[in-house]
Amino acid sequence: MVVVASALLLAVAASADPAGPPAGWPNRGRLGMEVQSMTDALREFFEAPADRGVLVVRVVAERPAAQAGIQVGDVLTTAGGEAISEPLDLIAAVARVPAGEKLSLEVVRKGKTETIAVAPDGDPVAFTRPDESARGAGDFHDEMRRSLHEGTREILRRLEGIERRLEEIEQKRGGAPREERS
């Protein structure tokens, strides 16, 4: 069941409407692109720094990243002056950008470095704790991981409920329980 829940989480993330978050989801800042972590071989191939960078693998047309000139194959190495080593670093940087302001991205394209400014869609993350001014990227990562774990638990809870209802329906119809089918 954990595999199913993980697959659901990935499917929801991959199929999310590029125009904005699904109904009921927070309206956090978005650039309209997907990035992935990089291996040493990818860093070498894209002539990126050995110690940081994420690879742009998708750019959604007419969204902030595309409008700013970000392209598939670009390597993002810093955001707002902070190094990016994994996708969550970029998410944290985008989430902190005040509404209407731009985020400065250092981009490696074909071995050359340039700076591109992009204004995320949506609102910055509003931390509800009183110590929000002292929060850094590490705290944001912890907050995101906690939210993911809570979301995973909720998905698992809902899947269990669906399984119970399916078993009840199957029993009413006189069919064999799903575990007994081959």
Please state the structural category.
Answer: alpha+beta
Number of strands: 6
Topology pattern, helix = H, strand = E: HEHEHEEHEEH
Query: Total domains, how many?
Result: 1
Tell me the span between the first and last alpha carbons. Answer: 18 Å
Task: Tell me the strand percentage band.
Answer: 15-25%
Overall CATH class: Mainly Beta
3D architecture notes:
With 182 residues, this protein is of the alpha+beta class. The protein has one domain: Pdz3 Domain. It contains 5 helices and 6 strands; from the N terminus they run αβαβαββαββα. Strands 1, 2, 3, 4, 5 and 6 form a 6-stranded antiparallel sheet that branches. A hairpin with a 2-residue loop joins strand 3 and strand 4. Helix 1 packs across helix 5 and helix 4 packs across helix 5. The longest helix is centred in the C-terminal third of the chain and has 37 residues. The N terminus is likely disordered.
Write the layout of secondary structure elements.
Blueprint: H1 2-15, E1 33-36, H2 40-45, E2 54-59, H3 64-68, E3 75-79, E4 82-83, H4 87-95, E5 103-109, E6 112-118, H5 137-173
Antiparallel strand pairs: 1-2, 2-3, 3-4, 3-5, 5-6
Helix pairs in contact: 1-5, 4-5
